[in-house]
């Protein structure tokens, strides 16, 4: 039925032939009204009566461009094609269910040049819609044209395909956006995780440094207290010796205040050890213990963390896939053969054997020497 409908389409109005239908000498069919419109456009100076040319003339077939010569009857002298008219009647009598329902057409725009003609064809050369008269006699007579319905369907199909492609592209772009958002969330989670691990590693390093700090400062404090104890003991011995000498001096002064020579000699003789001998012994401090030179020095606890500082400044993330195995750590256990040195990241702290104070001797002079 679609093929039959195409065969019943007038090449001028692009609609089903309207009776009466005339057949041209070239065997092409036209609506008589359309043939009359073409004839009038081709012969504008011929006299007309009631809108119809009454004298002979000529025009060209819109399908094959064959020249049609009319007699004095004009288009009414053309033979009617009764076969086509009968086929049209049979086609129109077909039930509506057997052929597609005709589309409801909105008011078609009219041609600006031929104001009474509807725009029913499309000029492929100029890419504009136009009317049949423009194709036959107007500015588009040398152009390639096509039915406006076919061009409409073609462009509508292209637009539909383009919209479908754009919708598909939009869906893909939306998928990419969703993937990027998911990537941002994953980056946030992974960054928090790695940041927590970095902070944990640094906290562990702080703990190690704090433990080493407490241990090393404790050793310095222990030696300080040990030296303080030794110095305090030595100070007490010198204070006792000074007190003893003071008592001897006071006794000597009291003896010297005796005016009687006999009494003076008796007192000096009766005093144990004689004052002069006792004064000489008390004045001799060579037997008292003395502090060695540099005893107050604590330079043997000097540390040098220059190498460790460079190592700390060089701390960075591991670039290899396999994390480097950490060293065994600090070995500071005291045992047999311990030399008093501690290792902190490769730095030697301290040197030499541990401090051993000189034993404190017994006081040289007893407090009861003057008794």
Total beta strand runs = 12
Largest sheet: 3 strands, antiparallel
| Fraction of helical residues | 40-55%
Low-confidence stretches: 329-371
> Would you tell me the structural class of the helices and strands?
mainly alpha
CATH superfamily of the domain at 1-102: Zinc/RING finger domain, C3HC4 (zinc finger)
Mean pLDDT metric: 76
Give the strand line-up of the largest sheet. 2-1-7
Count of discrete alpha- or pi-helical segments spanning 4 or more residues: 8
Oligomer: single chain
CATH class of the domain at 1-102: Alpha Beta
Q: Which CATH-level-2 architecture of the domain at 1-102?
A: 2-Layer Sandwich
Q: Outline, from the CA principal axes?
A: rod-shaped
Could you please say which CATH topology of the domain at 1-102 applies here?
A: Herpes Virus-1
Q: Report the sheet-strand fraction.
A: 5-15%
Q: C-alpha Rg, in Å?
A: 65 Å
Element pattern in H and E: HEEHEEEEEHEEHEHHHHEE
- Through-space gap between termini: 156 Å
EC number: 2.3.2.27
Domain COS: 256-318
Main location: cytoplasm
Region (Disordered): 346-371
């Amino acid at each position: 039925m679609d093929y039959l409908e195409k065969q019943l389409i007038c090449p001028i109005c692009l609609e089903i032939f309207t009776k009466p239908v005339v057949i041209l000498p070239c065997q092409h069919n036209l609506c008589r009204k359309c043939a009359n419109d073409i004839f009038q456009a081709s012969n504008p100076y011929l006299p007309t009566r009631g809108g119809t040319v009454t004298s002979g003339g000529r025009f060209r077939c819109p399908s094959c461009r064959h020249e049609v010569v009319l007699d004095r009857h004009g288009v009414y002298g053309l033979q009617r094609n009764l076969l086509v008219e009968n086929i049209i009647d049979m086609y129109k009598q077909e039930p509506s269910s057997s052929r597609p329902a005709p589309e409801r057409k909105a008011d078609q725009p009219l041609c600006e040049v031929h104001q009474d003609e509807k725009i029913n064809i499309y000029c492929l050369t100029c890419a504009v819609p136009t009317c049949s008269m423009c194709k036959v006699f107007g500015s588009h007579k040398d152009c390639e044209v096509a039915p406006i319905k076919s061009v409409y369907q073609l462009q509508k199909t292209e637009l539909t395909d383009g919209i479908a492609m754009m919708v598909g592209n939009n869906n893909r772009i939306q998928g990419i956006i969703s993937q990027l958002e998911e990537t941002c969330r994953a980056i946030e989670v992974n960054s928090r995780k790695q940041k927590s691990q970095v902070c944990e590693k640094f906290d562990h390093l702080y703990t190690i440094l704090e433990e080493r700090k407490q241990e090393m400062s404790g050793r310095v404090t222990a030696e300080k207290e040990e030296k303080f104890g030794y110095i305090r003991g030595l100070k007490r011995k010198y204070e006792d010796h000074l007190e003893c000498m003071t008592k001897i001096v006071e006794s000597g002064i009291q003896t010297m205040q005796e005016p009687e020579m006999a009494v003076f000699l008796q007192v000096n003789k009766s005093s144990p050890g004689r004052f002069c001998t006792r004064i000489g012994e008390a004045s001799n401090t060579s037997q008292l213990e003395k502090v060695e030179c540099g005893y107050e020095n604590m330079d043997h606890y000097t540390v040098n963390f220059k190498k460790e500082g460079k190592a700390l400044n060089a701390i960075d993330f591991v670039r290899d896939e396999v994390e480097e195995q950490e060293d065994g750590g600090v070995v500071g256990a005291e045992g047999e053969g311990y030399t008093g040195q501690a290792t902190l990241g490769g730095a030697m702290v301290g040197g030499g054997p541990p401090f051993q104070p000189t034993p404190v001797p017994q006081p040289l002079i007893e407090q009861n020497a003057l008794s």
